[in-house]
Design goal:
This protein is mainly beta. Strand 33 and strand 34 form a beta hairpin. This is Farnesoic acid O-methyl transferase domain-containing protein. InterPro entries: Leu-rich_rpt, Leu-rich_rpt_typical-subtyp, LRR_dom_sf, Methyltransf_FA, SLRP. It holds the Pfam family LRR_8. Keywords: Leucine-rich repeat, Repeat, Signal.
């Protein structure tokens, strides 16, 4: 019997001695307020709750009554909130009790902290919370219960919290949220329900929240949207429903009562078309994010009610240039930020920008843009940033831009740029952040380009030299060959025409022998051929529909090592190849469109772009 008693005493004292509470006291600025803070090191993995003291030495002249803030050290471990904390520090106003293993909040846990205004219980293991857990904490203005183990909450748990302004309930796997859970929170301004396993928007939840300004239900499983779900949220200024499988279940009048809304996030919700009725009541909207959806076109007038819009993001959909009306943004005179990245756009329509004189950021990253036509950005007066990363560009021409006196950030990484207009580099005077990695004529990036322009310009010498060979022109039906100086080792051309075209390679600026003519789209657009000296057909290849009416056809033509190679844009291997039997220097190339008018853009090919695994014929 005595041995048993000794063992029990040993276990008791061993457990007790393993628990400790120690404060490091200091004055600190917390959320803009001066506070006397206890940074608590708590070692209490067993959840002991019979502490008699908190160790630590106060700053001279201070006592427990002066402590208004509580933080935990990173090394702390506990599964509870010992009662002694509130009894020793009755004037606590700020409690940060995050990243512990607390499993339960009972009726008495915070009853001794009547002055607390800010409480964070983020990232604990709380499954159960008493309905009177916060009954004594009526001064609470901020409460964070994110990342716990809640599946529901007592309907009356927030009773008395009339001063609560911000509530965080995200990342809990709720199976039930009582209808009246938020009924007492008439002064709530911010509510976060991110990834909370919600399947519907219950109008009963939001009916009392007449002062709510920010609501996010991001990342839930919402498929049901009652028409009156948000009807009482007339003070709402920011709303996010992104990453919910709503699809086309969004009612036309979903935002009918949100006339004060300023920010709306609708990304990745599975909509396949835009209903203009959604936005008609939102005359005060300043930011609209509808990226990562599944719509392939936008109807004319879809955004006509959004005259105060400052930011719009329609990126990561399936939009081509023909799917975006030219006047889509016409009623957005204050637009500052236009994002259209990760789409399928090949040609930027300058009509989109008419009237957008105040735009400062344009993002078209990761489209399929082959060129910037003349004047495409001429409407911009104050542009600061242009993003064209990964967009398949081949040339940068000064004539594509208007005023670039404010341009400070330009991203051209991962294009196929082989020529740059030196005038652009010289006139983009404030350009500091310049990204040009993984292009053909240069690969570099700068954060101080403007300050070191003179020293850095030589790095673009190949680019600017190649620009001298750029040709942008048109040829008329039946017009004779028009000749240009040929850059070695070849040319990259794009042609827009309805019938076949010809390209001649000669040592002269006229057609004579020796010569090679490349005929693209002959025999009713079924074949392409190579003709030697105007009369001998030496190569024939099947190329059905290589010329597509009113579309661009891209070709790469090279003549290195006396081998003529013709490759379609985007392909690695040529579809026409000819080994010159009688070697001659290619000094000039000519272009002709004998059967219809054609528009051409032509630039040099870099030697590095040549295939290395094509055998001579």
């Amino acid at each position: 019997m005595e041995i048993k008693i000794l063992l029990l005493l040993s276990l008791f004292f061993g457990t007790t001695l393993g628990q400790s509470l120690t404060c490091n006291y200091a004055d600190s600025i917390v959320l803009g307020q001066q506070r006397y803070v206890c940074t608590l090191n708590i070692q209490n993995p067993a959840g002991f709750d019979e502490f008699t003291e908190i160790n630590g030495t106060h700053v001279e002249g201070r006592t427990n009554a002066n402590v208004t803030g509580l933080y935990l050290t990173f090394s702390s471990r506990t599964i509870n909130f010992p009662r002694i904390i509130c009894s020793e520090f009755p004037n606590l106003a700020h409690i940060n009790y995050a990243l512990m293993d607390v499993v339960e909040i009972n009726e008495n846990t915070f009853s001794g902290c009547p002055n607390v205004e800010w409480m964070r219980l983020w990232y604990n293991e709380i499954e159960n919370i008493h309905e009177r857990a916060f009954a004594s904490n009526t001064r609470l203005r901020y409460l964070d219960l994110e990342r716990n183990k809640f599946t529901t909450l007592p309907e009356n748990v927030f009773n008395g919290l009339v001063n609560l302004e911000e509530l965080e309930l995200s990342n809990n796997a709720f199976t039930t949220i009582p209808d009246g859970l938020f009924r007492p929170l008439t002064n709530l301004r911010v509510l976060f329900l991110v990834q909370a396993n919600i399947e519907t928007l219950n109008p009963e939840w939001f009916a009392p929240l007449v002062n709510l300004e920010v609501l996010t239900v991001y990342g839930n499983n919402i498929t049901v949207w009652p028409e009156a779900a948000l009807s009482n949220l007339r003070s709402l200024r920011a709303f996010e429903i992104s990453r919910n499988p709503i699809g086309n279940n969004l009612p036309a009048n979903a935002f009918r009562d949100l006339s004060n809304l300023e920010e709306l996030f609708m990304a990745n919700i599975g909509i396949t078309e835009i209903n203009p009725a959604w936005f008609q009541p939102l005359g005060n909207l300043e930011a609209l994010f509808i990226y990562s959806n599944s719509f392939i076109s936008i109807s004319e007038g879809a955004f006509d009610g959004l005259r105060n819009l400052l930011v719009i993001d329609i990126g990561a959909n399936h939009l081509t240039e023909s799917a975006i009306p030219g006047n889509l943004f016409r009623n957005m005179p204050n637009l500052l930020w236009l994002i259209c990245d990760y789409n399928l756009i090949q040609t930027i329509n300058p009509e989109w920008f008419q009237g957008l004189t105040e735009l400062i950021v344009l993002d078209f990253n990761f489209n399929h843009i082959n060129e910037l036509q003349e004047g495409v950005f001429a409407a911009f007066r104050a542009i600061l940033e242009i993003d064209l990363w990964g967009s398949n560009l081949k040339t940068v021409n000064r004539n594509a831009f208007g005023n670039i006196q404010n341009l400070t950030y330009f991203d051209l990484d991962d294009n196929n740029i082989n020529a740059v207009d030196e005038r652009f580099l010289n006139e983009a005077f404030p350009l500091s952040f310049f990204y040009f990695r993984n292009n053909l004529c240069a690969s570099d990036w700068f954060y101080d380009f403007a300050a070191n322009r003179e020293q850095l310009m030589p790095r673009f010498s190949t680019c600017t030299r190649n620009f001298e060979f750029i040709v942008v022109t048109s040829t008329e039906l039946g017009e004779a060959y028009r000749f240009y100086t040929a850059p070695n080792p070849g040319i990259q051309l794009r042609v827009n025409t309805n019938r076949g075209v010809r390209i001649a390679l000669t040592p002269f600026n006229f057609l004579w022998s020796p010569s090679v003519e490349i005929v693209i789209g002959s025999n009713n657009n079924t074949l392409s051929t190579i003709i030697r000296n105007q009369d001998t057909q030496v190569v024939v290849a099947s190329s059905p529909n290589i010329i597509r009416p009113d579309q661009w056809t891209g070709l790469r033509i090279t003549w290195a090592n006396h081998v003529i190679l013709v490759t379609r844009e985007g392909d690695h291997y040529p579809f026409l190849a000819y080994n010159l039997e009688h070697i001659f220097p290619v000094q000039f190339y000519g272009i002709s469109s004998p059967l219809s008018r054609a528009v051409w853009t032509i630039q040099p090919v870099e030697a590095d772009f040549l295939p290395t695994n094509v055998l001579k014929l």
